[in-house]
Please model this.
Amino acid sequence: MSEDQDQHEDGKDNQSDAVSVILGATVPTGFEYTAAEEVKEKTGADVKISKDRGRIYFRITTQHLHLVHKLRSVDNLFVVVAEFVDYGFKETKEETLNDFQKLASKLPWTDPLEVWKINNSLKKKKWRRKGTHLSKAYTSSQAGEEGDFGELTMNAEKLKLESEIPGGGLEENGSPVQSDSLANQGKDSEEAAVESSTEVLKFRVTCNRAGEKHNFTSNEAARDFGGAVQDFFQWKPDMTRFDIEVLLNIHNSEVVVGIALTEESLHRRNITHFGPTTLRSTLAYGMLRLCKPQISDVIIDPMCGTGAIPLEGAIEWRNSYYLAGDNNDQAVKRTLNNINHIHRKRQENGGAPWGLPVDTLQWDLCHLPLRTASVDIIVTDMPFGKRMGSRKKNWDLYPSCLREMARVCRPATGKAVILTQDKKCFTKALSRMGGLWRKSHTVWVNIGGLHAGVFLLKRIASVFGETSEDLGERADPGGSAARAQKENEGD
Model:
């Protein structure tokens, strides 16, 4: 039985006593509306976009819970226990923390905990097929030593709720992470699951706080609220090998209490061989969705890095064809290794046909081995000049890159989606491409604390080699780049 059929049957079993709950999801900042479109398309749910950037909310019933695991634009999922749009914080820290302590016993935990259990059953089926244990704990690299609850909180800028586990639930040495109840046991997974079900749950509370007018810290809120949760449920606090993670999300006067449904961020799903600037798979999906790939489209990533963009496209839009290229041989090797990893993973998960509509090769970005007007869509992450390249080199690279992209892209119908943090250099380079590219849309995103832009460009109908910009550049090679650099130095 396939994974989809298995999850569908599980939904049928729960249909008679289906529970309706609100789910929350963290998404790449700036791509909230893109994520909302995907949720509506795949689950039929109406979506509310939070004022707190990088979060969306939608209502769903438990028999449709398996559908949320098909979403490609969300980093993490959680079920909402309670939401307070205008929480009445007290004037003193002591009074506010005392309120948090009283709050735990007043919340409607029953339905969210039921959803958490059903979600675990969906994940257990996957582990059975892979031959791993049903009960799964994990180690978070974000965790400090075991101590008070506040040691594991994240700061306001971190909108993701993730555990950094290499390999998706594997220890550093590659072996499956097991809970204490299963360690050193020779029992099969079914017996261990029954035995572990009688044990006291281990938990932690994670607080995510944004806003300057709070008289308490994230650590203090997580510690006091977590202590009240422990008293109410008689669960055992465990900062690293926990079974359940309770979330306390605070954004200005809004407070949302939830239970995490994902153990590590879904943005790591396709990549096993990382480079110095590996793009998140969820961000790659958002960039691809902006250009709406169609059947038989030829899509290239001329600076593929680890192949996150073409891999995401080949998995989600399988009727298009993808070329992943880079001038760095190590980047090409990483991309190839990641493609092979997906091949093996698809075989293990249900015998999917071998092969993906993607190829990889090494090339010179400014002299692509492609025919003129042969590409439908270009999607790429250009060097920011931080960890890769330099700001100075970008003044030469960006104009040459945009021109070569215009050459291989189909006039009138071609599109390009480009991510860069070097916005000034890109804008000036683009301004000299008026006869080749037209900027259609911009999405502002946050990447590791850097404010970057995703630019959707449309290829103008003019034939490459006949525009004034192109003819002028050919007569004065490198001239516009030099002038742009001088202008920048004079700013």
About this structure: Residues 283 and 388 are 19 Å apart (CA to CA). The chain has a mean pLDDT of 79. The two ends are 64 Å apart (CA to CA). DSSP finds 13 helices and 15 strands in the chain.
